Amino acid sequence: MPEQQLSILSLVIGASVPVQLVMLILLIVSMVSWLMIGQRWWYLRQMNDGFKAFEANFWSGVDLNEVFRDGSLRLNDNEVVDGVENVFRSGFREFNRLTKNEDTDPDAVMEGTERAMRVALSREEEKLNTHLPFLASVASVSPYIGLFGTVWGIMQSFRGLATMQQATLAVVAPGISEALIATAMGLFAAIPAVLAYNRFSADADALYSRYDTFSDEFTSILHHRVHSG
Amino acid sequence: MHISQRLRNYGIYGLAGLFSLVLHIFILFLLFVGWTEKKGEHKPQRPKFVQATLVQMAPKADVQDKQAAKKKAQVAALKKVEAQRKEKARKQKAAEREKAERRKAEQEKARIEKIRRDKALKKKQNEEKARKAAAQKKKIEQEKKAKEAERQEELQRQARAQALASALDSEDEFLADEQSAQLAQGYQSYIQQRIIANWNRPLSARRGMETILSIQLVPTGQVVGVSVLRSSGNDAFDLSAQQAVKKVGRFDKLQQLSSQSPTVFEQNFRQFQLVFRPEDLRL
């Protein structure tokens, strides 16, 4: 090495195998967690925009059959029908199916519709929350992984120190320095994951509660229809 | 039916993955590159030769002389400019006076004698006023000049005092440097001896070969790092040089030096270069 001082690269290359393994794991974890962050960010933004657009359309006074048909057309064109529209579609489909028989009990109709919407809602909730558990695990575990690497590295360098006759700082310093890189990497992976998890889970909760409110409102509309018609 | 949707989802994953990859590569790059550059700045390269300070001292006096000369020239230039200004003012005043006289002469011709007499009186008064104003101006200018001269003198005095102080300082430094250099030279020859004693000459060593080693010591005299800065081209020779240093292992006397004067140790022996030649060995 022509370098006089220790560079980080040489520290990483010179680290012991367990420490290197820990660093590799942390690097991969960090990359995957950033992948998830990017995907979640995009998806939640998409859902938010979609919800706003759908709600504006829904409350603009258009016939509900029209809204349903519009969604079906888009499905046939291989376009995305996602989020709150799925809740609406499953509820509306069930409602139409049940009200085809003239003599079905209105309460039974409402019950069936509500059940269908609840199923669709929980499916949407699941979609909103995908990858969030992974981010949470990264946030909580990667500092520990990094810490493990550090402890291991320091253990090794102190073991090396024990056999030396002249104990100087220069003997242990590189080992400790290289071990500390593992902790730094752990924190580097964890901090964005914590932030992203908090942000995205709050966003997902907010969206879900808006879906829920919408489904209640929609139920009340259908309720009027059943009991007046 | 869902093929395009799924493709789109994969596309998003790919995009996010690419983003993550680029981010990490960027950060790693910054970390490695930025780190080594910073390290380079920290390396103190100190002049170890006594002559260097000697050479430095001579031009310092020159510079002082030059500065004094420059100041003198500046003062002279200032004076010249002032004189020119004064002359110009005088000329202007004369021209004005002439103009006024001419005007009055014309008027005299046109007017009656009485009025002419009055005019003459007035003219006299005007002239007197002008003279007075000129005198006042001259006085102010003289005062200014005196003040300027005083200020220049003060400045020069200060500069001289500063130069003297800095010369004294540099002399102290010079003396201290010389002392530490002498001290260091003794230890340098000690290091040479130890290394020569531990060197096994490889068969392939020839005259004219030269290896530069970089050696790092800790204050106990323990060698903590040996690396070849410039190879001689002969691996066996490089290796033998490195091994000689490693064999010494510890320069015992340096412990004494570092406890005596740590700065000399830090400057000269914390990290130093060693030129290694087959016929002689010198630091």
Q: What fraction of the residues of chain B are assigned to beta strands by DSSP?
A: 5-15%
Compute the number of structural domains of chain A: 1
Q: Tell me, rounded to a whole number, the average pLDDT of chain A.
A: 88
Q: What fold name stands as the CATH topology of the largest domain in chain B?
A: Fusion Protein Consisting Of Minor Coat Protein, Glycine Rich Linker, Tola, And A His Tag, Chain: A, Domain 2
SS class of chain B: alpha+beta
Distance between the termini of chain A: 87 Å
Total strands of chain B: 4
Helix content of chain A: over 70%
- Ends apart, CA distance between termini of chain B: 80 Å
The whole-angstrom Rg of chain B is 41 Å
SS element count, helices of chain B = 6
Largest interface: A-B, 28 and 33 residues
- Main CATH class of the largest domain in chain B: Alpha Beta
What oligomeric arrangement do these chains adopt? Answer: heterodimer
Helix content of chain B: over 70%
Shape of chain B: elongated
Task: Explain this structure.
The complex is a heterodimer of chains A (229) and B (283). Chain A has one domain. Chain A is 84% helix and 0% strand. Chain A contains 7 helices and no strands. In chain A, α2 packs antiparallel against α6 (132-162) and α6 (132-162) runs antiparallel to α7. Chain A is rod-shaped and about 95 Å long. Chain B is an alpha+beta fold and 283 residues long. Chain B folds into 3 domains: 1-58; 71-168; 171-276, 2-Layer Sandwich (Fusion Protein Consisting Of Minor Coat Protein, Glycine Rich Linker, Tola, And A His Tag, Chain: A, Domain 2). In chain B, 76% of the residues lie in helices and 8% in strands. Chain B has helices at residues 3-42, 50-110, 113-197, 235-248, 252-260, 262-268, and strands at residues 211-217, 223-230, 271-276, 281-282. In chain B, α2 (50-110) packs antiparallel against α3 and α3 (113-197) crosses α4. Classes of the chains: A mainly alpha (229), B alpha+beta (283).
